[in-house]
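Progress against Task 2.4 (sequence-to-structure conversion) is shown through the following example record, which the project officer requested during the mid-term review.
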Amino acid sequence: MLYIQLIGILGFCIVVLSFYKKETTTILLYQITSNFVYGVHYFLLGGLSGAFCCVVGMARNITLIKYNNRKIILPIFITIYSLIGIVFYEGIYSLLPLVANISYLIGMSYKNKKTLLKGALVSSSCWIMYAIFVSSYVSIVTESILLTSNTIQLIRMIKNNKSLENRLFVK
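Structure tokens generated for the chain above:
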């Protein structure tokens, strides 16, 4: 069991490294790598829906790098995630990775950071619940950090927009 958690730690390290990258393609390449590592991690924990969602997440990111057409990518990958839900259904918890990835995909499909962050909040929340079910302690920590970071970013964006709106309408 310890070696499985160590694999998860490797995935966490790759995610952290991606935060220091500026170029979208480089960030997506790091995410592809972390998805692979987390896919192995979930597979070894017996979390098949999570593992296969990670594999599809790799394909999604490769497709985004190659084509960058979010309007076409969205329905294709929602369909693929839905099929994973049907094939690997083991109870309601096995649907959490699908909801996580679909919400993140929808957030990514808009060119609006606020919408992306909202999708990421739903995604992280679902992954935390799933990680609890499959005993992925590293994923619980990783997604909790992402949830906190994205929440803070979203609150700051909302505050900044409200203060801007208030300045615009002051007489």
